[in-house]
Design brief:
This protein is α+β, with helices and mostly antiparallel strands. The chain is about 20% helix and about 30% strand. Among the domains are: about 15-310, Beta-galactosidase, Chain A, domain 5 (Distorted Sandwich), CATH 2.70.98; about 625-725, Sandwich (Immunoglobulin-like), CATH 2.60.40. The relative contact order is 0.08. It binds alpha-D-galactopyranose.
Amino acid sequence: MKLFVSKFAIVCLTVVTISLNVKAQTIPVETKDHALVLRVSNDKHLDMVYFGGRLADKNEYTTIAKTYRMDDKTDEYNSAYTPAGSRNLLEPAIAVTHADGNKSLDLEYVDHKVTKVNDDVSLLTINLKDPVYDFQVTLNYQTYFDENVTEQWSVIKHHEKKDVVLNKYASANLYLQAGSYWLRNYHGDWAKEMRPEEEQLMHGIKTLDSKLGSRADLFQPPVFMVSLNKPASEDEGEVLYGNVEWSGNYRIDLEVDPANNLRLIAGINNYAGDYTLKPGVEFTTPKVVYTLSNKGKGEASRNLQSWARKYKIVDGEGSRLTLLNNWESTYFDFNEQKLAGILKDTKTLAVDLFLLDDGWFGNKYPRNDDHAGLGDWEENKIKLPDGIAFLTKTAKEDGVKFGIWVEPEMVNPKSELYEKHPDWIVKQPQRPEYYMRNQLVLDLSNPKVQEYVFSIVDKLFTQNPELAYIKWDCNSLMYNSYSAYEKNQGNFYTDYVRGLYHVLDRLRAKYPKVPMMLCSGGGGRVDYGALQYFTEYWPSDNTEPIERIFIQWEYSYFYPALASSNHVTDWGKQPIKFRTDVAMMGKLGFDIVVGKLKPEELAFCQGAVKTYKQYSEAIWHGDQFRLQSPWDNDVASVMYVDQAKGSAIMFNYLVNNRYATGSHLPILLKGLDPDKKYTVSELNLFPGTKSPIAEATYSGKYLMTVGINPDVREWRTSVLLGVNEVK
Ligand code: GLA
């Protein structure tokens, strides 16, 4: 046992003392408010005995296990990493086929250590091994103390005589003990992302998973929320949030066991994924991130949001670019002249960047619709005779930045790439091809394909040093999954995502901060595995603002606002003010024909961009409070407060258009300093309209106790209020 100079040192010393007296020892994994307590039993098994409030006296963790009465037929229900094939009878975290064909595994505690990464971050590693086979697992628990967040993963290796096959290889295995368990999870499809469902978990297994290959979500995002004892509300109740940090097939098993406790096992999906592991090679699972809150959903999401900004998404503490995108204004139909006009519009709108979308490439098979060209990343000579260089040059002259769309993992059968490299494509050699959006996926498990995908994006940057933004799309799922490169097909799904991450690692090493949007035919690829490489994500192609209030609301439980790319488009019937106000709740962009705006609409948009910049500190880096849910109220309300509690912005929308609906009652603000005085005034007024809300000063206490009425009505369907400290 090593000694560490950290807040864990005392814990480790305690552990040593206990281990000298008895074989059993207790290993608490602590964050500011919580402790996950592991225990090595007398027979050297590692169990999880507690996940709840942190205790002041660490010695008391040793007595916790006794207070939970459990009739356990295996002594393994609460295993910290349940092995298959020995005495376990429930869902395993790990299942293997040894080199000799034997399918049993047992894991015994060997040792553990705590490494302090910095004042906030500590890593606990626990080594386990099979007493019979030369097979080891290291469990990793990385804690973010102040954020109350833990990331968990495992590293698997063996020194058997031949390859071992991993039949299941989860990242995390948690054990929760409560009276009842309430799961909130999500389903969806294109333009229908993040639809929530909440249910009580009963005995047996509920599995959330994806088998889509190239994108984790779409049908079922890799996030979950489990409330203990009763469904948590925004400010009350104990709730666990989690996300599998993996952009491919994932699996989360939630099993209420015979002792009425909840076993949660999460990681890569083992579907068609028996992974062949060579002797001496380490298999590192993706991380699963989770946070526990005993103050409801609001606190849990703020935990995850601040963790993500600080540690996960690229430039999470930096700024974001407002932009004008041309996707919905031109689709594939543009040329240099048209784009030069849009660059001028970008300037007129006073946003930072013009984002050129799909359709700029392909010559033998021009990308004039979604049937052709994917894979051939040369500028189309008819549309762009002077190449991207013309656009970066014109953008510079106009004083705006320039960004571009790519979808480098994909190929259309109508492309030169398809003709040249059929073996680079994911497809079954003996079966007919099956397409989503007329395209196929490139085999990123193949290092040559990784090199190709890297070089596409790298070349864009090296040839166009002014390039300031990338929208990275991924529109197809994987059908007929088969890799011409892989020897063991079971490795393919995992190696695809690893190949993708390898490419993104290289790009980020070379271009560490350039903003990149993670897009996937709408919001089909939002997870913290991918977001470690991106500054923002595209929540959905559905930009109808009422829909977006719901979609953005649900994403906000797990992801910070500055990562949510929200574009004002022509979807739906809401006025431009409503659409812009909704888009301002994250990273603001526009995808409209600026020339078609009436003068007052243009003036409104220009003013909104200014207001957005004024409040961006609160929106990007502040705390978010969901005040009134669109699901249960006529008026949905969300606010953002900057870290200094000096400036806040409150968004209010009418989401029910029945007669005489609106904000009849005041809405209680949150997150302000009760002792400070704040001025409240209406923002983003449409030119020619007046606010019925007279600018006035209130104490923070008043605003959080009595509240404020935004006066939302049929003719004021969207109301933004600015709340600013009087100094
Ligand atoms: C996907 C994206 C859209 C757009 C198109 C381009 O559908 O979600 O925003 O970029 O691709 O083909």
